Prior knowledge:
single chain, alpha/beta, 24% strand, globular
Amino acid sequence: xxxxxxxxxxxxxxxxxxxxxxxxxxxxxxxxxxxxxxxxxxxxxxxxxxxxxxxxxxxxxxxxxxxxxxxxxxxxxxxxxxxxxxxxxxxxxxxxxxxxxxxxxxxxxxxxxxxxxxxxxxxxxxxxxxxxxxxxxxxxxxxxxxxxxxxxxxxxxxxxxxxxxxxxxxxxxxxxxxxxxxxxxxxxxxxxxxxxxxxxxxxxxxxxxxxxxxxxxxxxxxxxxxxxxxxxxxxxxxxxxxxxxxxxxx
Length: 250
């Protein structure tokens, strides 16, 4: 198994930390992803690479029916702990145990960078109903802010961050041009929440113990040096949410 494959399947080893450390998705971004099919009733959505259910919760809040798909049973266990009524299935974007034309939207949060865009596009096209939409979304810290850029240097950049820096995702047939929108916002984070976010990253999960300890120590020192208006040392982490959507052809 390659390093990339090991990273892509590592999250279940830190499922509870992932749930605690990762941010939620802005409601406006999720609404925009689903806008082309929002009038459908019931609105059937597959959340692929659902993980612990961060994006699942946001889609449910809009009234959709959701099936959560993830290759890691530990992540789905964590999802079911918080969302016991959501249907879950093991699978991935390139191979989904869903019938043809069975959903109106397929969404992926923090996940498309692990997907083969050609095989994933074909399989998603298979399960989408006519006129269905593919939605991709990432929460990325705003590295135009110098102290945030330094934080990323300490904990090592990710495949997701590199994909966005390179111009965004690629999709293939049966999809054409991706539409794109961005939202900027801040997340109030305690020092512990920052450490949980760091510990939830694939590079840190798969690092050798001594490297992981060093990263955590340097992150804690870096956060402690950042001015905080709160007694507990909480900081406002700037984020940019990058959202992309494409309607299936035909």
